[in-house]
Amino acid sequence: ASPLIVAPSILAADFAHLADEVHAVEGAADWLHVDVMDNHFVPNLTIGLPVVESLRKATTIPFDCHLMIEAPDRWAVGYAEAGSYNVTFHAEAAADPVGLARDLRAAGSKAGLAIDRDTPVEPYLELLPHFDTLLIMTIKAGFGGQKFIPQLLDKVRAARRHVASGQLELRIEVDGGIADDTIAAAAEAGADAFVAGTAVYGAADPAEAVRRLRARATS
Ligand code: DX5
Ligand code: ZN
């Protein structure tokens, strides 16, 4: 496993040419971040299972599905069955997060727990042994292109301390406003997986943008 994960978010890609956009980061990126929004959990609507199923056949890059949806207990396992590497659902939306994590793992994917901007991380630390990834939003979930909120890195620090003290096998992922000028602070706070939409797909050369982000996270 690579020490650091860089996951371009296709939310910032051209949805009319999704396969081409994914091919543009293959080889440079570790995971492909797929933002699923249902216009209920967040006030925005993106893509769902049919697109994930089709895109899965067009690339070998591991999918990191980020479900910003209500009732993930009902829908998340479908994304695991569609061949996703990791499926992350929101703590604020899940009725039974531990049960759902177990179901995701049984369906063959890793399980991720996401914490939105206004949700404290402390109540969820005790659930982390059931998860493979903890996604800490560094913006309010719902839209790409927002400004990184550095104060939210306090949650990353708290989670990293907890992971280290409990010797947990868990990735800490940050999502929102990750770019050349913010990724080093997130890495220093203890994140080891980085989602970037605008910083990758807003760049003239998306693969080069991924390599540059990785270099800045490492330095
Ligand atoms: C927003 C999504 C993010 C989004 C990040 O709710 O979860 O993954 O794509 O976009 P940038 O990198 O532009 O902030
Ligand atoms: Zn996301």
Automatic annotation (TrEMBL):
The active site is at 35 (proton acceptor), 175 (proton donor). Binds 1 divalent metal cation per subunit. Gene3D superfamilies: Aldolase class I. Its EC number is 5.1.3.1. The keyword Transferase does not apply. Its cofactor is a divalent metal cation; Fe(2+); Co(2+); Zn(2+). It comes from the Bacteria. It catalyses: D-ribulose 5-phosphate = D-xylulose 5-phosphate. Substrate binds at residues 9, 66, 142-145, 175-177. It is an enzyme of class 5 (isomerase). A divalent metal cation binds at residues 33, 35, 66, 175. Belongs to the ribulose-phosphate 3-epimerase family. This is Ribulose-phosphate 3-epimerase. It comes from Planosporangium thailandense.
